[in-house]
């Protein structure tokens, strides 16, 4: 048996605590040995909950932990770039939540630094590890739906976020923050790169976001190099529940992923049919979060490259950033034109 991979988690918000719990209790071959967060109280909570031996309020100190093999970065998006650079320079393997950075230029700089350091990098596109999406990918690759012709995705959150969270200077804005998962799925499932985007967005419900200049609903149209077409809807105001659905139509059939219903129970009475809905992330993608961490650890133990790496992070982010720009200028934008403008 290979030695366990010693991992530190940086950032102990909702996602960071989820990752810490999975690493400490369910990921085979992993050992959570350190945590870091600017909030001392949450560090202490993690130490007590997961029997972690070291905790820090300065993430750079965590990188100097003796025996540390890898870091998991789950801090606010605006801090990812600095931490990835520091981890790469320290020679640590990196798992980072999406996106890696807020600009195209930063993404390229990070990937160059990671390549120079020759450290593994995996980005947190957990939907690729969901059983339904993996089965859909297999069916498409087997030719069961023929040639993919259209891609459609819906990503709707069940609440308006706090303005400080949604602030585009920290999150990238609605299209980047929420749509990036769908853009990654689009190129992965269709099997073709996106070559042109157009987008419309508006602030319709979450009026508190006006203070930071974000929107709460957007529609993005994609054109793939293969000729296939796509549409992605992102919304902050699905107050009925967490609504994630994807569809790929092919020349011979289609695959549909996702449903409103959470518990397999339908209640019928004189008023009609009733069922519950998906509450939020951990209920819908809990197993996918575990599988992506297991994949990361397995890759490190067997000296393999993660399946979802820096190139995937860059490709999805440039679609998201180009769509954000297309929404701002009000007309379609090719990915190549976006790249040239940011060289």
From TrEMBL:
Pfam families found in the cross-reference section: GFO_IDH_MocA, GFO_IDH_MocA_C
Molecular function via GO: nucleotide binding; oxidoreductase activity
Keywords per UniProt: Oxidoreductase
Glycoprotein recorded as keyword: no
Superkingdom, taxonomy of origin: Bacteria
All residue ranges annotated as the Gfo/Idh/MocA-like oxidoreductase N-terminal domain in the record: 5-125
Cited PANTHER family: BINDING ROSSMANN FOLD OXIDOREDUCTASE, PUTATIVE (AFU_ORTHOLOGUE AFUA_2G10240)-RELATED (PTHR42840:SF3), NAD(P)-BINDING ROSSMANN-FOLD SUPERFAMILY PROTEIN-RELATED (PTHR42840)
Protein name per the record: Scyllo-inositol 2-dehydrogenase (NAD+)
